[in-house]
Amino acid sequence: MTQLNQELPARARRKGRERAPSWRDALIEHQIEKWAEVREIGAQPRSHLSDKATYVLGDAIQWLAELPANSIHAVVTDPPYGVIEYDDKHHEKLKSGRGGVWRIPPSFDGAKRKPLPRFTVLTQEEISGLYNFFGALAYGLQRALVPGGHILIASNPLLSTLTFHAFQQAGLEKRGEVIRLVQTLRGGDRPKGAEEEFSDVSMMARSCWEPWGIFRKPMDGTAAENLRKWGTGGLRRISADEPFKDVIPCSPTRGREKEIAPHPSLKPQRFMRQVVRAALPLGIGIVYDPFAGSSSTLAAAEANGYLSIGTDRDAGYYALGREVFTPLSTLPLNER
Length: 336
Description:
Helix content: 25-40%
GO molecular function: DNA binding; N-methyltransferase activity; site-specific DNA-methyltransferase (adenine-specific) activity
CATH class: Alpha Beta
InterPro entries: DNA_methylase_N4/N6 (IPR002941), DNA_methylase_N6_adenine_CS (IPR002052), N4/N6-MTase_EcoPI_Mod-like (IPR002295), SAM-dependent_MTases_sf (IPR029063)
Protein name: site-specific DNA-methyltransferase (adenine-specific)
Strand order of the largest sheet: 1-2-11-10-3-6-8-7-9
Catalytic activity: a 2'-deoxyadenosine in DNA + S-adenosyl-L-methionine = an N(6)-methyl-2'-deoxyadenosine in DNA + S-adenosyl-L-homocysteine + H(+)
Distance between the termini: 37 Å
Region (Disordered): 1-20
């Protein structure tokens, strides 16, 4: 008997039952059937990281095209904001530490700042390509999600309007944004080469927040009907007395977690576990990350006891994600 089958209520597995299972029992049975199908879809290489997590080496849009409609229940992802920063050309320059769209910021008060892509230098052609890319992704996700399924997708203040509009154009409902309050050293710099001459000038505001768009596939009937039929439509509350909130203070990933998973845009587990938990209102269903990277979404789902699947086309990050999944998913949140 598999672990998932063991989780089915005992009364739902008795032989000779005559009454129909409850709507919750039916949801759990549907989840088990879908999970067995979804984690084996396609011919791409994959790793089953645990009974509840699978990582596929492959392009998200291509993999979504093979996925049957109404197969996943939620999406939580931190995509390449401008797309081009993870093109092979620019990615190799990031790894070598020089050139391309990635900028190596100066040290500040002895703090070494990590590389960040310069989205202010995108050409009109690159902006059009960005919009088309996220539009294609959104249409694929819209088809793959069950009715009422939520998407929580990270962006940044420079590009979020463009990205989020592409998702709305695909027929997804905008349901607000989660604002991650994050004190960083990004932005706020004086003019390069003329810092003393223009000592009172910053070229950009210091970045202190990160927007995560919240989108939902239209529901099938009322909220209650959709929850009973698909297990989706809302966001899971923090507790009976406290709803999930759209502002979450969370500093950058540092210390032990960064040592475990040296990914250039690693989001901390203390943030990821909160948004992943909220994505499945009943705790039933499959969470998908199209850009799984270091497997931080999959690790957060594992920590919450959720089923999850991720894709990434970068073989290096795929290898990293396989290696760090267990350490990330079991990392105590006070060990940072």
